[in-house]
Amino acid sequence: MSRFRFRRTAHKDPEETGSGGADEHASAGYLATASRLHSFNRYEIKYLIDEWDVPALREALATQMDIDPYSPIGGYPVTSLYYDTQSLRFYWEKIEGLKFRRKLRMRLYGAPSECTADTPVQVEIKQRVNRVTQKRRIALSYGDACRWLHDGEDLDWSPRQRAFAEEVTMLIGDLDLRPIVTTGYLREAFIGRDADVGLRVTIDHKVHGRDRDFAFASGGENRFIIPPHLAIVELKANERVPYWTTDLTARLNMSVVRVSKYCQSVEGFGLAPRSILGPPELIASDGESAVVSSELLEDATSVPAS
């Protein structure tokens, strides 16, 4: 039986109101990197890189791509709250490599300590169909998102939001989804230009998470779920990966890695046994997995720069 009994409350679509509500907070900075309602397919390839090699990567990328105008050196904070079943169905779909798999998350762009009920967040379904990654998401205020996903309120959706919202509501009710872990990191982003206009490269630093105190601004304890001397690089392309990216990753000795931040957080907190298929370098030592302050995780100044 579902934990939720959905009830309808008023909700303003920030895409249609033009001003007020969550939209007032999304007018500047890295928040502009996230669209309000977005759907796309793309290929994603992930690599690991030592932080000391990031300046060389950053310099090489800047010769071929544009730096995201809202992406400072060292990155902007991204925090995600993942939902799963009590038996971790979505986790095991990833571990077992199912050709069709998906996960539900709430994502915050910006400092978690500054998150309020009016702060815009993204509720997103990310799914994999064979080798293609598909994302569908919608923006709303953090307060509305919590009332919807946690309290079971059925918000008054606009016509353009309704189909996605009903799919999420069905997932939560049918599978009895609940918050499991968070992940967070500081993200640098590069955008393709000219012939590579569909290309996006991101560098994620200080990858961390927690398994409790799920409110973004709770100040709860975080632990590194990837050793902090490593960053995760993702190449994201709509159709093809340019040849120059292959040459660059080879020159910097970057190897393709199969890694899920969600799975790393689940395993890092002992919610499931660590996969024997995972690269051993992803296991943080006792010192690396110690509790880290929220201030450090929102501060890009300690990331090596060129």
Catalogue the unreliable spans: 1-7, 14-28, 32-37
Strand order of the largest sheet: 2-7-6-5-4-9-10-12
Order of helices and strands: EHEHEEHEEEHEHEEEEHHEH
The number of strands is 13
Average of the residue pLDDT scores? 83
Helix residue percentage: 10-25%
Give the helix/strand class.
alpha+beta
What keyword list fits this structure?
306 residues; alpha+beta; eight-stranded antiparallel barrel; two-stranded parallel sheet; 13 strands; globular; disordered N terminus
What does the model show?
By secondary structure, the protein is α+β, with helices and mostly antiparallel strands. 22% of the residues lie in helices and 33% in strands. The protein contains 8 helices and 13 strands. The strands form 2 sheets. It has an 8-stranded antiparallel beta barrel with strand order 2-7-6-5-4-9-10-12, surrounded by 5 helices. A hairpin with a 2-residue loop joins strand 6 and strand 7. It is globular.
